Structure formats: C-alpha cells, structure tokens
## 1
Amino acid sequence: MSILNKNWSALSKPKTTLNYIHGQFKESKTKTYHQVRDPSTDQLITSTPESTDAEFNEAIESSKDGYQFWKNTSLLSRQRVMLNFQQEIRNNANDLAITITQEQGKTFSDAHGDVFRGLQVVDYASSIPTTFMGKMLEVSNNMDTFTRKFPLGVCAMIAPNNFPSMIPNWVISLAAVTGNSLILKPSERDPTASLLLAELAQKSGLPPGVLNIINGTHPIVNHLTSHPDIKAVSFVGGDNAGKHVYKRATENGKRVQVNMGAKNHGIILPDANKDHALNSIISAAFGAAGQRCMALSVAVLVGDARNWKNDLINKAKALKVGNGFDQSNDMGPVISKQSKQRIENLINQSSKQGANIDLNGTNFEVKNYENGYFVGPTIISIPHTEFDIYKQEIFGPVLVILETETLDQAIDLINKNKYGNGASIFTESGSAARFFEINAEPGQIGINTPLPVPLPFFSWSGNKASFAGENSFYGEQGINFFTQTKTVTSMWKPSDQTTSLEKASLSMTYKF
C-alpha cells in the first residue's frame, strides 16, 4: 500500500520533493537536497530541496499577487473554499495518513488522528461568517462606532516534523479564510503531507498565490523572518529555532506566534481510578513515540500512588513497537537517526548521573526492521529535578518518574519548571482537582484526561517558556493573529442641512 501509486501531481516525481508556487508543482533548480528516509527502514523515500533565492522570491511575488485578489473575495466565497477543503480532506484522509506513516513513522491510526485534528481547525475556519463578525454600538445620538477585521497580507508558517498535517492546517485554513496569503515551509524531514494539502486546497478552489510551499531549512527560515513583504510568522518547533525565529521576526517588525518546548507533568493521586490513570499516562507518554509537544513525559506519583510504579512499568513493557502500518503495533520509530542517538545519549547520561532506569529502550531492535530508528519504551526514576533528562525536552518515548508526599509538593515541582504547555491530574477528589486547576501554572490543564489540548473553537493556551508572541494558535486568538481590527466612528445627522449659525469645533469631542 503506497501513496506513490496514486496519480497525485504533487508526487509525479517522487524522488524529488516539489515546491508549490502559484498553483503549480515545480522542481527546484537547487543543487542541495536533504534526504527523507523511512524511519522504520532507513530507506530513501525522496529528497527535499534547499530552494534557491530566486524560487523564494517567486513565491513572494506569487503571494503578493494572490493576496491582492483574495482579500477582495467575499467572505462567503472564502467560506465555500473552506467547506470544499473540509470535504477533500475527509475524502483523502487515508492517503494523507499513509504519507505521514511513511515519512514520520507514526502508527497508521495515529497518523489518522494527525489528519483529523487538523481537519477540526478547517471545520472551525468554515464558521468564519460568525467568527469574523465585528461589534457595533450607538455611542451618542446619531453616532455609531463599529469594528471590522481586515487581513494582514502575506503570512508565513514554519512547520515541525511531528504533525505533518495537523499543524500546517492550523495556519493554512485560518490564514486563507481571513483573506491572507500564506507561504508554508514544511519540515524537510516529512514534506509530502503539506504538498497533498496544497493539492486538495487547489481542488477546493483556492486561487493561485494564496498558498505557496517553499522547501528548505535555515536559509529559507531566515528569508521568511526578514523579508519586508511578510507581515506575520507562525512557528512550531524546538527552543533554539523558536527563539531564533521570534527574535529575528520581531526585530523585523513582524507579528509572531511561536510554540516551543515543553515538559508536561501528570500527577497521580492515590484516590485516582488506577487503571484509567496508568493507561492515560502510558498513552500520553509513548503515543507517537513521545514526539508530541503535549506528551506527558513526567509522572508525579503522590503518596500511596508511589506503590503503583511497577504497574506502570509493566504496562509500558507490554507495548508493541514496530512499523506503523502493522495495526498490531502500539508505537513506531522516532523521526530520524539523529533523534534516536540524541534520545539514547540522554538515557545513558541519566544513568551516569544517578538515575534508576526501570525500563531501558536503548539498542531496541524490531525483527525485519533492524535499520529502523526505534527506541523502546523507557521509564526512568529520579530523586529530584536536577537531571538533564528532566530539564530537557526529550521528544522521545521516555517517561520520567518523580515522587512526592503531597499534592502541594507536586504542584510546586511543576511550577518551578520553566515550561508551561500543559499538566494533568488524576484524582476522584473534586476539591483536589479544583486546587490543582487554580494553582498549577501551565496554560492547559487536564483533569482525568492525559492530553488537555483544547478543541479549535477555543485557542491553544500554552504559556511560560513554551510560547512567545501576541496571539496563540487557532480559535479566536488564531483569527485575531491573522487580522487587524479597525474601529469606525461615524455620525449621520437626520438631515445633511446645517444652520448658518453652526460652526466647526476644533476641540476633540469629549462629551457624548
């Protein structure tokens, strides 16, 4: 089963990933390429170009032209494109999931989840006639003030490798439906899902220039964060790149939203539903091989819940690891050979620093996939937080276990961490849950749920070192990010006739 057998124009030359510029899929003229390898086999799938300056400038000119046309398209026409896009994604979800499993390594069911969660943002974007409404008030006799939203112009998105469909759709849908044009740079490691989304958007009626896809790495990022015609930049990824994007883009006067690293904690109280709590931690720690910014990578066992550690270890041992297309597997490989090496180095380093490795997933082999980038489920117990394995985002299938006597101690531990994406608590006590909700600092709180990611009609609410920018992703904040608000104050007297005794006032109005 291979998506390459399907007649997609985006994949007409699968050994070279194409750019998508002004409605056409184009082969780059660069001489520099980055290999895209199947994480399960290490086999070469395609090569991603380091696009040239000329190709980037072509994308800019296309986006400028596309914006001039698209911003004057009626809101209902833009909504119709989103409704069509919604249906195209549903019809082709299987093909999107296949390419995600091939290039990113997720299990096929998890790849479908990637597609579906992105589709939910497209669903939200389709409600734009309601969410785009302004406000109006008669502020004085014959005087009205009202607000209107306008698009910004050419926008950019720098996407990560862990959600090749979901995260691009956070931005493709909202940037387009609000009247902007968008230049998308996919991850060089798994670019194909973005190209398929572009083709589906084209089939849905999105005009040339409204969406352009330019492949590359650091040089393209630097262009996107500095070019004067780009008004806003979205980024999801790691700390170092995120800080670079935020600094460079803001210095160049751009609106920026940057989602960076995370260290999400799951507290288990002794009154929790044991099986639900442990299964939730296992799911959130090892799903997608731990390559989620909302992964619960730290379990905090409180009081007598410390006696459940062995049960947690046994559940992790039972997970089946292998190729994502095998539906009996629970977990696939990590994205690259470099990621596998980095994760295993952190695991080994933690042992040297005095951590206890309860379950070791290093040097993990899968039969018939000996060259794959597999790391087995790993559980590490540490006595305090001064370990690199705790302080760094692992982004792999590693669960760190800490123990505390009380809930207060567990919350204090979470609040001392620099990150603030999310945290969860498992308990049957409403008062404990309420206390946690109020006092834990992360922006996304889960109560008896392991992944407290809000649905798209809310907004992403990670905070502290996990986020930088003005408005966050999707929901009302997402629409605000891609628009500028104008207030209009107008006076219409009952008649345009004025008496000869009336004269102009040069003072600012202060009485209403």
## 2
Amino acid sequence: MSIEIHNETPADVDLEAVRGVAALALEHLQIHPDVELSIQFIDTEQMSQLHVQWMDLEGPTDVMSFPMDELQPGAQAGMLGDIVICPDVAQQQAEANGHSQADEIQLLTVHGVLHLAGYDHGTAEEKQEMFGKQADILRAWFARTEPERTRLPIPTES
C-alpha cells in the first residue's frame, strides 16, 4: 500500500500516526493492499478555495476527499484518491470537542478514507453506517496505539 503524505502547513502533524490510521482504515474496509492514497495538509486559504471550487461553499472546511478510481472493498489495486485536511480547522474542532488536534486529524483521516471508499452521510441511514464504521476504526486504532485510553474522539456529527 502506498500512502503519500505532505504537510504544507506549519502545523506539527504526526505523519506516521496519520499513515497508520489510514492504513488501518483501508485494512478494515478490505481495500486492496496495493492501492495508492494521497493525504495533504493545507492552510485555511487553500482549503477555502477548494471548498468554493468543489462544493460551492464559502470558508474553509475540515476535510475533503477526491476519489480517483472509485475502488470498492475487494477491488484490485489502483489510485483510491486524495484527502486534504486543514489543521487549523481541525484545531478549532478539537478545542470545541475537548480533545487534541492529533485526535481530530486522525478522525478526519478516517472520515476521508471512508468517503473515498464510497461512504457518505447525506441520509440518516448513510450517516449511521458511515459513522458506525468510523467509530469502529477509531476504537481499533486507539486500542492498538493507546490501550489505556478511555475517551475516544468519536463525534455524532461531521
């Protein structure tokens, strides 16, 4: 599996943790191990531009996903797509939700991978399925990396 990560911001992002949680999400979703994934950390200005360009919404957002080959679970290798995350928005959300920026970035990474795999939260049923998978992956991640942890950054909204 090839996970390419670039941080174009001054934010101190644990890129190995991001790589690890993304790999776990791909494994959990049974995405072919030879897929390619790109994760990029960008500033609020760049994120605002993408948000307007692709969603016709003003202002920055936390995470955006851009699927490439629309790979499904069990599919062969290919380019899964790109995820862009804004650490500044992640920091604001982390503060509002009482956890660290690192936790929020890991949550957003999983959220982005789920979108690339075809999950969405446009309806109540879709949201329940997507957020359930997101919670399962985050529980598995923190059980692996911080087994003593009792509180996880698992939101009901995103």
## 3
Amino acid sequence: MRRFATSLFGQVVFALVLGVILGLAAPDIAAKLKPLGDAFIKLIKMIIPVLVFCVVVHGIAGAGDLKRVGRVGVKALIYFEVLTTLALALGLLVAMVFKPGAGMNIDTSTLDASAMSAYMSNADKLTSGGTVEFLMKLIPTTAVNPFATGDVLQVLLFAVLFGCALSQLGEHGKPVVRLIDATSRVMFKIMGIIIRLAPLGVLGAVAFTVGQYGVSSLKQLGMLVLVFYASVAVFVFAVLGVVMRVCGFSLIKLLRYLREELAVVFATTSSDSVLPQVIAKLRHLGIRDSTVGLVIPTGYSFNLDAFSIYITLAAVFIAQATNTPISTVDLLSILAVALITSKGAHGVPGSAIVILAATLQAIPAIPAIGLVLVLSVDWFMGIARALGNLIGNCVATVAVGAWNGDIDREQAHAVLDGKRPASLAPAPVDPEADDVVPLPGYQSRA
C-alpha cells in the first residue's frame, strides 16, 4: 500500500478521488482550481515542440538509412488509414444498431444557435480551403514559427528535413547530433520535473469539472455517452487487441505499462499532457528512435481512432434525434468526409465540435444546429476520445515497429513483463565516444 501511495500512479488516483470529493462538497471552491489543470497542460505543451524535434532528428540521423525512415513513414500512413476507416465504420454501425438518438424528437427551431457560433466559425475556416489548404498549412512560414505556435505537424516536417540533411553530412554532422542529443536529455529532465506536478494538474481538472457540471450531468444524453464508451472499449480490446496479438504482444500488459499516462489523460482529457512520457516509454520498450519519433507525432493528427468513432456516431445521433431521414448515400458521405476532416483535429480549439461541424457542413441532409445537443456531454465523451486516441497511437507505434523490424522483442517482453522497470533517466553521456550515444531507453541493434 505504501508503494502505491508513493508512486506517481497512486498519487494521480488519490488526486482524482480528492477532486471528485471536493467538487461535490465545495463546488464553488473546486471550480476555482481550474488553473491547476490548465497550468500543468501548458507546462507539458511548452516542451513538446523541442522534444519532438530532438527525438525525430536524432532518430533519423542515427538510423543511417533514409530508405528505412521512408518505409516507416509510408507504412505508418497505411496503418493509420486502415485503422481510422475501421473506427469510422464502427461508429456508423453502432449508431445504426443501437439508435441512441431515436425517440428524442428534437425540434431544431427550439435550439439555441448562439452556443454554436464560435465552433461554426472555426469549422468554416477548417473546410474553406479543402485538402490543398490543409496540406499547405503543414508547411511553416519560417523554421522558428512551428516552435512558437506548438504546431506538432509543422515541427515534424522541419525535423524530418533537418534529420535527413544531417544524416548526409557524415562526420561533419556529428557535433550537431551530439548537441541535439544533449538538448533532448535536458528536455527529458525538465519533463521529469513537470510530471511530478501531475497530481496537482489532475486535482484541478477533476475538481473543476465536478464542481462546474456536477456528476448528475452524466444523466443528460446518457445513452449517447454509454454507447460511445462501449464502442471505444470494443475497438480497443477487439481491434487493437488483435493488432497487438498479431505483433506478438499483449494489449493488457501495454495498458498496465502505460497506466500512469492513462490516468493523467483520464483526468485532463488531453493526450498532449503525456506526449513526452509516452515517447520516452515507447523508446524504453525497445522501439527504434526514428520509428517512435515519426509515428507518435504523426499519429496525433492522422490516427485518431476514438475521435473517428465519435464523428460518425455523433453525426448519425443528431440525424436520429432530429428525425432526419438519412440514406445509404448519406452514410457513405459521412464516412468519406470524416476520413478527411478528422485529419485536421489536433490543435484546433474545441476540436471535437469543430470537426463534427465541418463534417456536417458537407452533408446538408443533417441539420448542423443539432450539434447543440452534444455540447453538454462533450467533456465526458472527451475522456474516452483522449484515452482511445492515446492507446491507438501507442499500439500503432508497436505495430509499425514490428512491421518494419524496428523493435527489440526481448527488451519489449522484459519491460511489459515488469522485469525491466521503466525509467526516464538518461544513460550517461560519453564525451569521448566517436559513435552517437543513443537516447535514453533506446537499445542499439545491428
């Protein structure tokens, strides 16, 4: 019991329970603790751009084979498209089978459109330029801009170019590689300091939510929330479980290995809050640096499994709740449009509602004003979205690593079995070594 209480996981769980109690007992005070959760997430986001840059550049420069890096990228994109398509299809299937919106008989003329104005405005901006505009936004205006704005995809693009150029410099590039290696070690040390504040962040986030909305708010539109949670659970344990089994690993053991990160995501409803720790843990699992560095940041925008389930489920729910008839063509249109709009989710304020609005704008048959119906339960659905997305991206990294032969299976099994405890502490740097010193958690392989 003492070991549990002193562990980060135990402290996070304690903070979560305390937040619920405080929210119920003193909602006015609890609502004022929101800055604790916001500050924790901001601290994490502060180091994400530099950390992603260092991991990706070091991974590519250390790989020595740009063709291998290219294969990882292509395989990752193929995997993302297959899995997100399955997730979108699952959302449609569940919505048509369980009909969570049937019987609500909502008159759209009675809904308050003012609550949707900000979301619809962002949706218009998101869809105004189409696919070309989305791709153009991946290119930063300057090399420094993505670090200032925190745009992970732009950082990733610059890091890939930087890493490829650095790998072609040979001996001349080694001083830069060592500098990036040293910088990454500093960033991981900073991460170790920040993550100790996770219990405070969890306390603030949970206390605010319970104090502001109350536990009873779960009753409203409870069927939609229940169906969504069940759908995410089915996708995680059935689909992702099979993927892990095909790769030769256990999903349950992976979830146990990531329990601290999952607890933080559960409380903050943000997978960004654990991105640095996830990168470190997957590298400690024995997955090659370049694979982790490419798959995880890219997956945060292109592999949103639970988010994909949400889009199609919510779209059909709104149609059912407003008694809007939808044809097979409409269902296929939802699937096709969501394949595109879901890729722009990361980094958009109120992303879930915004992306759903963008999807519905492309399907006139469904009244977009119906989005008001899901606003009140969006936070609760956000918990499952964040958890499902994080698990999906971790499984994707393992799958792509196994597919490309970039995972040390002996190391991975030892870590998942608890024989090699996870550690974010970097290995000592040898300043006299001629070879690049591997980042912490990565085991060199011939």
